[in-house]
Amino acid sequence: MPRVCAICSHPNREEIERALISGESYRGISRQFALSPDALYRHKKDHLPMELVKAEEAQAVARADDLLEELGKLRRVTWGILGKALAANDLRTATQAAGQARSNLELMAKLEERLRGGVTINISVAPEWITLRAVILRSLEPYPEARLALAQALKEAEGAGR
Q1: What is the dihedral of CA 7, 12, 14, 20, to 10 degrees?
Q2: Residues with Cβ < 8 Å from 115, sequence gap 6 or more?
Q3: Packing angle, helices 91-116 and 48-87, rounded to 10
Q4: What is the tens place of the pLDDT at every residue in 69-122?
Q5: How many CB atoms lie under 10 A from the CB of residue 82?
Q6: pLDDT tens sequence across 19-47
Q7: Domain spans of the chain, in order of start
Q8: What is the 3-state secondary structure (H, E, C) of 102-133?
Q9: DSSP 2
């Protein structure tokens, strides 16, 4: 049975990890908390990076949430200005607000793409979709008009995604 990490199970774990991160000597930390320098070294090498990565990911998510929230506020203000300009028949301001609204949407799309990892999925070539599409169309064989209408709609939708 593997040994339990002395630092992971230590009541002062957070304080020990802060000392390790700040660069204090293993010898000094080991004296302060009655731990072996080897245990400190193993914990820093094997367990601390994972904890730091988790903390860094949590901070990145929090920053992204803050950024999206600020962008949402900006979007609401921009749409408010656009609405007021249109109501006042101020076409110059409305045009500027519409341009800013478009820029906001572009930025939001870029941020969402980055948060998703920039992955684009083309469902029309996915084997699961091809199988499902065939099952749906087969089930509509008794209803030729509905089958034809669905086939045409699917063809248009799949063509629009390319």
Answers
A1: -60
A2: 64
A3: 160
A4: 888 888 899 889 988 988 898 888 888 888 888 888 888 777 777 666 655 666
A5: 19
A6: 888 888 999 999 999 999 999 998 888 88
A7: 1-46, 63-116, 123-160
A8: HHHHHHHHHHHHHHHCCCCCCHHHCHHHHHHH
A9: P
Q: Is 89 exposed, middle or buried, given 0-12, 13-18 or 19+ CB atoms closer than 10 A?
A: exposed
* Among the listed residues 23, 126, 96, 109, the one whose alpha carbon sits nearest the alpha carbon of residue 68: 109
List of residues 6+ apart from 47 with CB closer than 8 A: 5, 7, 8
Class of residue 39 by CB neighbours under 10 A (exposed 0-12, middle 13-18, buried 19+): buried
* Distance, CA of 119 to CA of 125 (rounded, Å): 15
Q: CA–CA separation, 122 vs 102, rounded Å? A: 25
- 1 pLDDT band, cuts 50/70/90, is low
**Dist CA 159 CA 153 (whole Å):** 10
pLDDT at 121: 61
